[in-house]
Specification:
α6 packs antiparallel against α7 (219-249). By secondary structure, this protein is mainly α. A two-stranded antiparallel ribbon has the order 1-2. The longest helix has 31 residues, at 219-249. The protein is globular. The protein has helices at residues 6-11, 64-88, 96-118, 125-149, 154-174, 182-209, 219-249, 257-283, and strands at residues 15-16, 19-20. A hairpin with a 2-residue loop joins β1 and β2.
């Protein structure tokens, strides 16, 4: 089962036929229905049945602490650059076009860094932090505009909403209320593809027809699609948690924690943007 996150999919945080696919490690195929550890020869791997190390651990396996620290650093970079851009690039009628131009440029640069990292054989912390920095500039300008034209409390509400979604999904995942399996993955991917296709069609109608295109970004339909976007983000989080858990259980190298941080950051940005847009629709035009 592959993650919805393109970073995880590219690097192989996955299970296929019950066996963890590994990080590009080629292993003999297991017998049908038998889960095998592709890191069986890895001194950092654990036995999937007992959770105990198969060999003495030398301290180079990815741990939850590694993921948490890298995610904190990546998200901290996003927050810091967002705060700086908010202060340095205030949005008002006199410079709004310039600010939006900077935001779009920053978003495009962040996208380029994300794509470069996605096709790298190994995680590059500099690329990941550069992505986070430019993503922060984009979020800072958009958040400033929303606070100025919709309401000063909108951004705080979106941040709190994002935190609540993260905490809720984490609790549900740890309590095993969410069963992340192949069927769950297939449903989420199908829903995500349909959602993105509709958004692209709406954008094209908006560009060539003016207004809000098919109305997926405002009014009742906008609220509906905002809720769907947040739910998809929550599903992405569940998939990401599963991939991180598998990576830790099966002895992934410590450097892969950067990819986990990268993927989690991308998902949280998605949720925040959908939350911000939904609250904006509910509070104003």
């Amino acid at each position: 089962m592959r993650s919805s996150n393109p970073v995880f999919s590219r690097r192989g945080f996955s299970r296929d036929n019950g066996a963890y696919a590994g990080f590009g490690t080629q292993q003999p195929q297991a017998q049908a229905g038998t889960a095998t550890n592709p890191y069986a020869t890895n001194p950092y791997a654990t036995d999937p049945a007992t959770g105990m190390p198969q060999a003495p651990v030398r301290g180079n396996a990815m741990t939850i602490d590694d993921v948490v620290s890298r995610t904190a650093l990546t998200l901290g970079t996003v927050i810091l650059t967002a705060a700086i851009s908010w202060l340095v690039l205030p949005v008002d009628p006199a410079n709004i076009n310039k600010s939006y131009g900077i935001a779009i440029g920053a978003a495009l640069i962040a996208f380029v860094f994300a794509m470069i990292q996605s096709f790298k054989a190994k995680p590059v912390p500099a690329l990941i932090l550069a992505y986070a920095a430019f993503e922060g500039v984009f979020l800072g300008v958009i958040s400033s505009a929303t606070s100025t034209y919709i309401g000063p409390g909108t951004v705080v509400q979106a941040v709190m909403g994002t935190m609540c979604v993260f905490a809720g999904v984490l609790i549900a995942y740890k309590m095993r209320w969410i069963n992340v399996n192949r069927r769950f993955y297939g449903f989420v991917m199908a829903a995500a593809m349909g959602f993105m296709l509709l958004m692209v069609v709406n954008l094209l109608f908006s560009v060539f027809g003016g207004g809000d295109g098919l109305g997926f970004r405002s009014g009742g339909l906008g609220i509906l699609f905002g809720v769907i976007g947040i739910l998809l983000g929550a599903c992405f989080l569940a998939l990401d948690f599963k991939q991180v858990e598998d990576g830790v259980t099966y002895g992934a190298p410590r450097e892969e924690s950067w990819l986990a941080a990268f993927g989690l950051t991308m998902t949280l940005v998605w949720i925040y943007m959908e939350m911000l847009r939904l609250i904006s629709i509910l509070k104003g035009d």
